[in-house]
């Protein structure tokens, strides 16, 4: 089971660096298209994405079928949401909006089967996302093979980050820069980060490293992702479908339209052509 979890395998061996993508639009074809781009993991976003429970199940299956780790971001720190995500076959979960170490402990309780936690067993769906395991094998190996990730994106979580990092069963501290900036009074409004936000991110990274946990962070471009990778983050998002799609299509359309001068010349040629036809018809 661990061998099939590409994200966990990478975090535990080698450089520990992984790159992922964010899926916000529903659809198994969308999920497969993203997964086939070469990422280690694809996050299925049920918090802010247009993805419901059914679409989550379909996306998880499609991503796992490509040999990539499907990770689900649930909408809130609710036990039933953790259960639904893991029962779909997700290789890990990201839980947003933590505040305290007690919140982190609650995540672990929801994500682990007894005796480590309180997760109920019974879903027939997750086994196939790990190479066709039996139910017994999944039950016996899941606690040590799934990745439990918590987002540090509130002022309270930042203040309690060391205590959160010490919670057994938490594998990754994941930075949500936009909400973190909002919560500490330094919103990202023009694409740049305030120095205090940069220090807050560095603090989270240090807490993870000092407590032998992995660190992750959301980014909006390949260049930014490279910067975070160079800083030592282990789980780095590279791109979101809802950023990539409009950006590329807008860029292509802008190229097609050409410059203002080019457009003006074309308009001028069209006008001259129309005038010539009009003059010719009058002359006949």
What is the makeup of the main sheet? 8 strands, parallel, barrel
Number of helices: 13
Task: Give the averaged pLDDT, no decimals.
Answer: 92
Task: Specify the overall morphology.
Answer: globular
| Class of secondary structure makeup | alpha/beta
Q: Report helical residue fraction.
A: 40-55%
Task: Compute the number of strand runs.
Answer: 8
What are the secondary-structure elements, in order, as H or E? Answer: HEHEHEHEHHEHHEHHEHEHH
The main sheet orders its strands as 1-2-3-4-5-6-7-8
Please tell me how large the radius of gyration is: 24 Å
Low-confidence stretches: none
Roughly how many Å apart are the termini? Answer: 84 Å
Percent in strands? 5-15%
Family: Belongs to the HpcH/HpaI aldolase family.
Keywords: Lyase, Metal-binding
Organism: Letharia columbiana
GO molecular function: aldehyde-lyase activity; metal ion binding
């Amino acid at each position: 089971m661990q061998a099939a979890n590409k994200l966990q395998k990478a975090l535990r061996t080698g450089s520990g660096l992984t790159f992922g993508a964010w899926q916000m639009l529903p659809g198994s074809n969308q999920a497969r298209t993203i997964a086939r781009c070469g990422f280690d993991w694809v996050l299925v976003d049920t918090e802010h994405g247009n993805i419901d429970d059914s679409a989550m199940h379909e996306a998880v299956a499609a991503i796992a079928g490509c040999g990539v780790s499907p990770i689900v971001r649930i909408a809130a720190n609710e036990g039933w949401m953790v259960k639904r995500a893991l029962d779909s076959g997700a290789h890990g979960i990201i839980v947003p909006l933590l505040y305290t170490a007690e919140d982190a402990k609650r995540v672990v309780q929801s994500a682990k089967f007894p005796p480590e936690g309180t997760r109920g067993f019974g879903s027939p769906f997750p086994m196939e996302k790990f190479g066709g395991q039996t139910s017994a094998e999944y039950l016996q190996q899941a606690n040590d093979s799934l990745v439990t990730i918590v987002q540090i994106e509130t002022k309270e979580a930042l203040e309690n980050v060391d205590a959160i990092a010490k919670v057994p069963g938490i594998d990754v501290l994941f930075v949500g820069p936009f909400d973190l900036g909002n919560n500490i009074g330094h919103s990202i409004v023009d694409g740049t980060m305030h120095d205090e936000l940069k220090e807050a991110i560095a603090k989270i990274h240090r807490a993870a490293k000092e407590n032998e946990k992995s660190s992750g962070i959301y980014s909006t471009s390949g260049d930014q992702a490279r910067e975070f990778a160079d800083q030592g983050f282990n789980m780095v998002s590279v791109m979101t479908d809802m950023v990539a799609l409009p950006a590329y299509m807008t860029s292509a359309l802008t190229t097609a339209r050409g410059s203002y001068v080019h457009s003006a010349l074309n308009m001028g040629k069209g006008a001259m052509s129309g005038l010539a036809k009009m003059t010719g018809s009058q002359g006949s």
